[in-house]
Amino acid sequence: MVLPLVLFGNCWCSCSSTIFCPFPLPNPPFRYSSTFHTKLQPQPQCSLAKIHVKSQLSNRDSIRRRRSTNSLPISDAQAASFFALFQEIGIGFEETQVLFSNNPDLTSLSVESLRARLSSLRSLDFDPLAIGKLITKRPTVLTDNQIDPLLTFLRDELQGKLEKPRLNRLLSSTEQNVLASFPQKVRFLVDRGIPVDQVVHVLNKVSLAKVLCGRSVDEIDRTLAFFEPFGGIDLILKRPQILNHDLDAQIIPRVNVLMELSDGDVDSVGKVLVRFPLFLNYSVEHVEGHVGFFSSFAELDYRQIFRIIQVYPAVVTASRERKLRPRIQFLKDCGLDSDDIFKFLIKAPTFLSTSFHENIAYKLVLLVKIGYRFRTKDFAVAVRSATRTNSVNMQKVIGMFLNYGFSCEEIVAMSKKHPQILQYNHASLEMKMEYLIEEMGRDTEELLVFPAFLGYKLDDRIKHRYEVKKSVRGAGMSINKLLSVSEETFTGKPRKAHA
């Protein structure tokens, strides 16, 4: 590689070395090779030349800065104070110059007032760099007189607990004249029933620009008033994000769908919304599509559909084609008519949305292995009970029965009489089996006749009644009669009539 030579004083200089000469040299008629240059010692004269060039650049920068500060309608001392103040928050010289050029109002402020405004921002736990970015994006944060009351409100009344990203968006993207009404609207929320210790929770969940800054007090009041019959403040506290929806275009039409299904039952609709406020996220078209599917494909009426929504409002989150249709078809293939399907879904609604490959498939295999015939009504009933537990617990329940000497045929027979035994907790069943054998001295075969024994509470029902009647009837009493009779019949005391 051949490097060019540059003349500095009485020497030829390349970027890697310098050749000295005691007298002035003419322009070089040729280029020296880099190999030759590397054998020569570097000269301090070249370094001095570079320092001289840097000094010239530094002088030019100083001159440029002096000209820039002199171009501002403030004194040099004031300009220097401004530059030093902005440098503390990460805003450089050129950015400061642009800010002052584009925002002449800054020059009318004193350094003390700017420092006080910056101190107010720091009191909200803004770090210096975040303040610098905020000011660069929205310089009026420094000049608008309406900001000070807002910052005081955020610091004192909200205790600076508003999340920093939301606060940053509020200050950087909202018009300053709208921000002036922000404290008033927050106080209005408190006056309308939102607890003081919960108002920050609400503010941190909603879009501040949309809910508070973009709406008047009357619009906010109208939205809160609409929700009063349907859960009111409890509904809002459970999911404040529902306030982001437009009242006329979204909230009212979506609530009206439920009102039509419930035949105007306000209390029932309110319970659905409080239980699952996410329901309001789904459009009218989406919900009506689910209603139409259950009406046409499952042949359910509106009363039955609303009842399913009451039990499991998250049904609207399930895909109609990917989940609802094949599972309703499965129930049909098992021989269930529309009333049977309704009863199935009331008791096991999660069957419609539970993962097939990670949940339902394992249970179907277990049921077939112990002897259930696939696609029969009995099989569907067993699936209904299995839906209410997980596959691991169900496998342990079956294993426990096998360990106590029951055959697969006997397990199927017991579960047909009392399907719930497949969904009971295996540890609880183990304790009841031990009490039946060890304390009551009974044979496990009695469960073939009365498997519902395993559904009663061990301490409150089984132990209590057995201890009461043991001395009267002896150890051979029927466990069916012992447990299945009502409390009035068992104690012999009629229930007191209420006034």
UniProtKB/TrEMBL annotation:
GO terms for molecular function: mRNA binding. One of its GO terms (biological process) is mitochondrial ribosome assembly. GO terms for cellular component: chloroplast; mitochondrion. InterPro entries: MTERF, MTERF_sf. The keyword Amino-acid biosynthesis does not apply. Residues 1-17 form the signal peptide. It holds the Pfam family mTERF. Keywords: Signal, Transcription, Transcription regulation, Transcription termination, Transit peptide. Belongs to the mTERF family. This is Transcription termination factor. It comes from Vigna unguiculata (Cowpea). The lineage of its organism: Eukaryota, Viridiplantae, Streptophyta, Embryophyta, Tracheophyta.
